[in-house]
C-alpha cells in the first residue's frame, strides 16, 4: 500500500468552504476512495483548500484517483450546496486544475496525520 498527502485548492483561491461544506466533502471523498479500493485516512481543510491523506494500492493510478476525487466532489458538492454554483456567465469550476501530491513513505504516517488534523476548520 502507498501513502499520499493530497492538497486541492479552490479556483482562484476563493474562500468558499464553511464547516458544513467540509463535512460534505469528507463524505464525498470517502465514497470516491471506497470506489477505488483506497482509504481516506485523514481529511481537513479551510475555506480555500483541503488536505487528504490516502492509502492506495499500486494498481491505482494516483492521477486517476485525483481526477475522480476533484470531479465527483465538484459535481456532488454543488448539488448538495447550490450556493456554490456560479452564475452561468462565469466558469463553474470548484477546484483549481492543479494539485499537490506528495508521497509520505519516508515520513511517519502519524506525523502527516497530525499535520492534517492541525489544519483549522472554519467555525
UniProtKB/TrEMBL annotation:
InterPro entries registered for this protein in UniProt: Transposase_17, Transposase_17_sf
Mention one GO biological process in which this protein takes part, according to its record.
DNA transposition
Q: What is the lineage of its organism?
A: Bacteria, Pseudomonadati, Pseudomonadota, Gammaproteobacteria, Oceanospirillales
Q: GO molecular-function annotation terms?
A: DNA binding; transposase activity
Signal peptide residues are none
Matches recorded under NCBIfam families: transpos_IS200 (NF033573)
Q: Which organism is it from?
A: Halomonas cerina
Q: Which PANTHER family match?
A: TRANSPOSASE FOR INSERTION SEQUENCE ELEMENT IS200
Q: Name one Pfam family in it.
A: Y1_Tnp
Residues in Transposase IS200-like domain copies: 2-119
Name of the protein in its database record: Putative transposase
Listed Gene3D superfamilies: Transposase IS200-like
Amino acid at each position: 500500500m502507498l501513502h499520499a498527502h493530497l492538497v486541492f485548492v479552490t479556483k482562484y483561491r476563493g474562500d468558499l468552504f464553511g464547516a458544513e461544506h467540509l463535512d460534505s466533502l469528507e463524505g464525498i471523498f470517502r465514497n470516491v476512495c471506497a470506489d477505488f479500493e483506497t482509504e481516506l485516512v485523514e481529511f481537513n481543510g479551510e475555506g480555500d483548500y483541503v488536505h487528504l491523506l490516502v492509502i492506495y494500492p499500486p494498481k491505482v493510478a494516483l492521477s486517476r484517483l485525483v481526477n475522480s476525487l476533484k470531479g465527483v466532489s465538484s459535481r456532488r458538492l454543488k448539488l448538495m450546496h447550490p450556493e456554490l454554483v456560479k452564475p452561468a456567465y462565469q466558469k463553474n469550476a470548484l477546484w483549481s486544475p492543479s494539485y499537490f501530491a506528495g508521497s509520505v513513505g519516508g515520513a511517519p504516517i502519524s506525523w502527516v496525520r497530525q499535520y492534517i488534523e492541525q489544519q483549522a476548520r472554519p467555525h
